[in-house]
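Request: Have a read of the protein record below and say how the chain folds.
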Amino acid sequence: MKNLRRRPCDDEPEVSALPALPPNSSPGKRWRFRRNLVIYLAHRQGLSQRLLADVFDLPRSSIGTILKGFSAWEERLD
């Protein structure tokens, strides 16, 4: 069976560098953060905003807002 793990690339952000939630965050906020993180990482892997909007049943404008939010964190690291 082929190994499906990817080696990390130099341009990928470290997990510790991603925006953290406060420890007392509600379950809803934690769920939304994880969903948004999956959307951001899937987009970085090449999935289109249209596909992500269909999969997560969100408007494309919401997907764009999520991507901008995580991109802002990534720019702060550079």
User: Anything to note?
Assistant: The mean pLDDT is 82.
